[in-house]
Amino acid sequence: MYDIIIIGGGPAGLTAALYARRANKTVLVIEKGTFGGQITFSPKVENIPGFALVTGNEFAEKLVEQVLALEAEVECAEVLSIKDGEVKTVVTDSGEFQAKTVIIATGAKHRLLGLEKEEAMVGNGISFCAVCDGAFYEGKTVAVIGGGNSALQEALLLAETSKKVYVVQNLDFFTGEDKLVEQLKTKANVEVILGTVVESLLGEDELTGIVMRRVSDNEVTELAVDGMFVAIGLIPQNEAFADVITLNEMGYADSGEDCLTTAPGIFVAGDCRSKRIRQVTTAAADGAIAALAACNYIG
């Protein structure tokens, strides 16, 4: 039996493992996909303290190496459920593991448009975060897909440095706040395209443009862009835990900055919890907080 099982091997989960091992707790990190999480899709990362420039893969590799050097155990498996009790049993597709505490750090994945070549072009012209990647499109032409608050905020930020910003929304109106819409109207380099969906992507290894279809008359047009920012929502990876912790209406763990859940001994860290800012640094901060809370729980 482990002191702490961490579900998820992104920055939040790996930071939790780092802090837990430094507290001399036995740790198992379970990850179903790629260790490092979504940051591995970023070819250039410039907003991590201590790194002027690093690729997402390089950062993830350093974090994994650091955790393994502290002798945390890792398991590649998909977690199916948690059996709560004085001893927590984590059920995976490759067996069951027991621990005194569990930290859920499964993250949230960006909702995709569902287009051919879309996943392959993430990091090669397709992005989800203007704060993270906007600087790479300085003086270039970009498209923002979506019409909610996130999309409007992305467009406003990109308008500060990009030559041209197209905002493509499938509805005939924006669903974001009126204040953001008004701010967008003041930007001379922003062009709004409503009632239009993205049908396909242009380019081979890198994005060079998009094919759009106007919903009202099915007219198809092509738009040359250097980058596309998809802002149509996030999907938290918490389905397997809905019976043991409280989730909010969006499916995020209903937890504050203390990273506690409604289940004693089960903690949450990173993008899978309810929070306003989702960055690698805030995920790492959550990992530290959750790990120390778990250590305190164990005593």
Q: What would your notes on this structure say?
A:
Helices cover 23% and strands 27% of the residues. It has 299 residues and is of the alpha/beta class. The chain folds into 2 domains: 2-109 and 234-298, FAD/NAD(P)-binding domain; 119-230, FAD/NAD(P)-binding domain (3-Layer(bba) Sandwich), CATH 3.50.50.
Helix content: 10-25%
Assess the beta-strand content as a share of residues.
Answer: 25-35%
Low-pLDDT segments: none
Major sheet attributes: 7 strands, mixed
From the alpha carbons, calculate the radius of gyration and give it in angstroms. 21 Å
SSE order in H/E notation?
A: EHEHEEEEEEHEHEHEEEEEEEH
Count of helical stretches: 6
CATH class of the largest domain: Alpha Beta
Could you state the CATH homologous superfamily of the largest domain? FAD/NAD(P)-binding domain
| Count of domains | 2
Mean pLDDT: 94
